[in-house]
Write a structure and sequence with these properties.
2 copies of one chain form a homodimer. Chain A contains 13 helices and 14 strands. In chain A, helix 1 runs parallel beside helix 2, helix 1 crosses helix 13 and helix 4 packs across helix 5.
């Protein structure tokens, strides 16, 4: 069985660690969001690709929730001291990823080739693809306390300002002109099943599906989603703030409804069991119920198996 | 007394530490070579500006000869592991300098303003100016073992390939169209004396003098050089390889003759005392003789005082 998993950052990384315990790691191709990529200090940073890479390589920091384990922050401490932009945390080892990516981009290599090189350097046997080699950037139209509207890139909204601003609209700049990265449409066409990782449906999975050709390649086979919302709140991140912007209720039902007419099955947490009938009835999806808290790889495997059992 | 010092990297840094023991630090303005700046990993690296900054801030590594003291190399070790370009050593603290410089350049700030910000962050009271805010890059026309000619940027020639290639020609790309950084011509016009630090006359002081308007602003006051060549060899660097390319003999006399019609005085090492008469006779410069080995700040002060005593 061949699978394609659409992935955001940390939530996806945790889930994929469980998935590759349930199936052979090379049987799943991961297509990763690049909408929250950012250029900072001249470096091209791809937070979701890096999160998935670090999680699959088992070098992610499980407590901090981002970046690499056993990390030091010498460079960033000095950036702060020099009066530079230190709002986006970059560890010293993590910096190396951005340095080589940026150099390779400057040499003309596409992001997909670079992502694959970094995957191999981390000895990951699961193919990783950025959603696109073209720049797609998630911008937030925010309304501040004085009622003034202004656009911010996603990372500035979330990491820079802690998601405190009121978001009125979310745009995926460049998506209309982007094409799927080489291999994305082929992997989807070749897959028996598509998995939607427990990532933010609006700003993690949303940008992937916004690239023309990706969503269109999916129909005709099972699509199984996993809810990133448990008991009406996201386990991490800002889905509670952004789902309403997309007209979604902040619940496992809302998460499922983000994939209306796309997902054929959905995994929800046992705390949300009461929503199963509604998801089945109103959205026509098969529902699996399990404990979706991925506190370790074994727990993540349980969630992955619940998704696979919907097939 | 107001001074302007034209400076390359480490040799200049050592000399300047001595100079600011001999005169008030704010009485000298340092104009630094940017011809060997390099863009790597997307970062703008200004090796000579950084050397001078680190030496004046007393954070330079005195044994390694480049970079900062008490440095770690976590990021660069990882870059090597990931298959990236690790030939140009960048410490973790040092990286911060390049990160903030690159970010500020991306925000539209000129190099001169950035250099000044970094100077202030390092609590240096000596004004530092890049020779130009415009890109001037030193390129080497090399001839390889097969007789093939190819151009390399200076850092690739020197750091990348250890100065092993035969250099046929040296070009300062962009110099013709460059203008001196704001304050450079004014500082020279305002100075009683110009000092030429013991830097490579060809690839350190040469690029500074190649910026139209800088050399022209100098005449009319004492110009004192310090030989970077002792007993027919450079104390550091590659002057022995590059002086012949510029038609200069590799000696204190050759170093002095690089500043013919410019320098009015020249400091040479006591080991080269026999050359004093020739420099005075053929080049018309006053000569001071001292031990020019700058093994510590006190030794550097001795060299600086020898230069000042030529006034």
């Amino acid at each position: 069985m061949k699978l394609v998993a659409l992935a955001g950052g940390v939530g996806a990384g945790k889930f994929l660690r469980g998935l590759v315990r349930a199936i052979p790691p090379s049987d799943v191709t991961v297509v990763v969001n690049t909408g929250d990529d950012i250029e900072l200090h001249g470096l091209h940073i791809s937070p979701d690709i890096d999160s998935v890479t670090y999680w699959l390589a088992d070098v992610a920091d499980r407590e901090r929730g981002w970046g690499r384990a056993k990390e030091t922050f010498t460079a960033m401490d000095k950036v702060r001291e020099l009066g530079g932009q230190a709002w986006f945390g970059l560890g010293d080892q993590d910096l190396a990823t951005h340095l080589v990516r940026t150099q390779w981009l400057a040499e003309g290599k596409p992001l997909s080739e670079i992502t694959d090189r970094l995957r191999r350097a981390h000895e990951i046997s699961t193919p990783l693809l950025p959603m696109s080699d073209d720049p797609v950037r998630t911008w937030m139209l925010e309304v501040d306390d004085e009622g003034m509207e202004h656009y911010q890139p996603f990372q500035m909204y979330w990491v820079g300002h802690g998601g405190r601003c009121h978001v009125k609209e979310i745009r995926f700049e460049g998506a209309d002109d982007a094409t799927p990265a080489p291999g994305v449409v082929e992997a989807i066409a070749d897959a028996d099943t598509i998995l939607l990782c427990p990532s933010n449906p609006v700003v993690s999975i949303g940008p992937i599906l916004s690239v023309p050709g990706i969503r269109e390649a999916i129909p005709g086979r099972p699509v199984i989603g996993v809810s990133p919302i448990v008991a009406g709140a996201p386990l991490a991140g800002m889905a509670d703030k952004l789902m309403p912007v997309a007209g979604l209720e902040v619940s496992a039902f809302g998460a499922a409804s983000a994939y209306k007419d796309l997902a054929t099955g959905f995994v929800i947490d046992e705390r949300d069991e009461a929503l199963a009938t509604r998801i089945e009835g109103e959205l026509g999806m098969r529902v699996a119920v399990t404990d979706t808290i991925m506190s370790d790889d074994a727990a993540a495997e349980r969630v992955a198996r619940a998704a696979l059992e919907l097939l």
